[in-house]
């Protein structure tokens, strides 16, 4: 009975949601919703998921109807929040405006606030994501559109510009934090002064990014617009208005442009196959370029996550906001300065200075008269409002106010050494007073006993306590520094070997909380501890769903180990090549190809320093429980130094994945990874090693075969026979074409990983690739195949003799 009743109720709700308008007789409240005619967008009451401080608050919002994780595109922000949507209603008021009423208090919380010529109006949710208030009898009279009042999202078809008569502009403003849609500090808008450039500003005052002026085709500082292929866009600039507008060339693609709570603008696309939003463009390029992101006395760092931290002697003012990625509250001083503490200052010591080298100096410095660093220091100490000073070739500068826009480990414009003023007690390491000495003497014996007890206690508890402490730190995104003895313990003295690669052997381990890990012992690293830590921290902050996550490291004496998350399905090599009874399905293979390309794309284009993997092959693509691919071993080539030839000689297992430029001596770019990726893609298609396609004793090189079959239009013969022809033909064609483009001899004709992703996603069409020249050679003279298949042995025997290797290469190309 009860389930039946529930179904009836559900049916009624669903019937109600089929409506797309609110008119004077159909107000709505509670869980009611209206849905656009093509079911693309929904309007209703919405409560942000993460609300800690303001949980249980509801907002009128518009979101995508068909995206599982509720993604809002517009919210009506009000000063008074709705805590119970059943007591609030959205209705047409007697003046024709759409209003949000608090019925309990009979109070108006929000209104479209326009003057209408008739009070007979209605509000309709459109498939463009816009809520429109129109005349009920003549819907072509539009009074108000939500798309003209964007919040944090700029949708296709929306204008972002300036009405030159009213001087009213559309501004894109982020949420205050991840749980609060009220306006944050940042904004994107067209220059109100009338030039044709967009600015991202902090607090409507300081611009930290500009698009550059419109040059007739693109915004001058956004050159990537020229390689646009997914959007139509237009910039209108005349006497009455100027605005930018964009739309999707393919209507079925869901794309949105947002300004993030952390002050970056981003363009994202929904990828249904992986059920996630993929960000493919962001400005400013790095997070720390966002002005004052970390608030007063906070410092931004690109090598640690979260980006913001308080500087020494300070701590978060509002921890709950920081947890929601709103750092604007900044930090507060832990111990007041001597001059601030109005106690009898005889007891307190004068303030001291803490040296912060290599930082981006804060804003709003004032110059002070001083001819030496010491005088500069004295000048700062004299004035209680002085928080820091610096002395450089331009002289002495002091900071009388809050310190904002600091960045750690900085090397750009405005780098310097900051001397931060702190209470003396913050900088004391050993405070020896008479009392303490007497205390030590008197308590000597007792202390020894206590210490002994503590030592015993620690010996007893050591492992457990350490590890639980450290593991809890992982969640925060920082790397764990393991002790060698601990790793020895969790890997049962390195007994379970998972594999060996170019950089060392990998062992399985299990942390005390039973998290499985993979521990890599690095061979032949002759790097200093400091440099190692720096590199490791870069690898640690390089995080993406398609990259294996680094959890920690160990650096003790000459021992260098890396600790990664464990991948239950092992490597692609194990899963793909014959031997494994059940062949990977085509869908899984395609998923692996796409995910790998995304991971590589992240390495090449999305992180701070471009990381070239240098060793892309099935052995380095690991698979998680659900066969999501994760690229492993990235960043290690760099760890071994820029000496790539050394990397080459150590790549013993690498057969047939190396791009020709490795041996021709030209500089290695990300396109070398693209080549290897292409080779791997062929193997995903055929299910066999590229060099293992021999028939009747005649060796055949699969890519050669594939290139010619592609031209003949006969692709199914290329497919792994274990699949019995069960593959999506469109995907198969795309994969073959991409693979063939990837292995072109000339780097510049190979696609970028970004383009590969787009091609595989189906957003970019791709022409028929030419047969690579070196392949044509290979096809004709079978003995040259050794060039690929026996590369590893020639590499190892020739060690680093580059003359010999390049001769090999010229001999190869000489045959053409
Ligand atoms: C309001 O909409 C409902 C259903 O969409 C309709 O039945 C009703 O006639 C409309 N009322 C007015 C005043 O237009
Ligand atoms: C519209 O205005 C008229 C008078 O101007 C008023 O009588 C009527 O009730 C109003 N209609 C609504 C739906 O509020
Ligand atoms: C409504 O608009 C008028 C001007 O058109 C403005 O003065 C008023 O403050 C607005 N009211 C609200 C609640 O936004
Ligand atoms: C500018 O705003 C005024 C007043 O709202 C409006 O009448 C006019 O149509 C707007 N101009 C443009 C080009 O949208
Ligand atoms: C606009 O012009 C004013 C006055 O010339 C100037 O102070 C302001 O900085 C300009 N704003 C921008 C964003 O360029
Ligand atoms: C400005 O451009 C808009 C959009 O193209 C157009 O509707 C409007 O008439 C133009 N105004 C003038 C004065 O050219
Ligand atoms: C301290 O510095 C501030 C800002 O530069 C200045 O306004 C104030 O007069 C100074 N006070 C003294 C006592 O010099
Ligand atoms: C010295 O520091 C001040 C304050 O940040 C800065 O404005 C100035 O450019 C620096 N001068 C040099 C030469 O770095």
TrEMBL record:
Domain Protein kinase: 492-764
Listed EC numbers: 2.7.11.1
Entry keyword set: ATP-binding, Disulfide bond, EGF-like domain, Glycoprotein, Kinase, Membrane, Nucleotide-binding, Receptor, Serine/threonine-protein kinase, Signal, Transferase, Transmembrane, Transmembrane helix
Superkingdom of origin organism: Eukaryota
Catalysed reactions listed for this entry: L-threonyl-[protein] + ATP = O-phospho-L-threonyl-[protein] + ADP + H(+); L-seryl-[protein] + ATP = O-phospho-L-seryl-[protein] + ADP + H(+)
Domain Apple: 339-423
Localization of this protein: Membrane
Gene3D superfamilies: Bulb-type lectin domain, Phosphorylase Kinase, domain 1, Transferase(Phosphotransferase) domain 1
GO molecular function, one term: protein serine/threonine kinase activity
TM region positions: 435-460
Gene Ontology cellular component annotations, sorted alphabetically: membrane
Positions contributing to ATP binding: 521
GO BP term, pick one: response to other organism
Start and end residues of each stretch annotated as Disordered: 792-816
Family: Belongs to the protein kinase superfamily. Ser/Thr protein kinase family.
Name of the protein in question: Receptor-like serine/threonine-protein kinase
Native organism: Brachypodium distachyon
Gene for this chain: LOC100823236
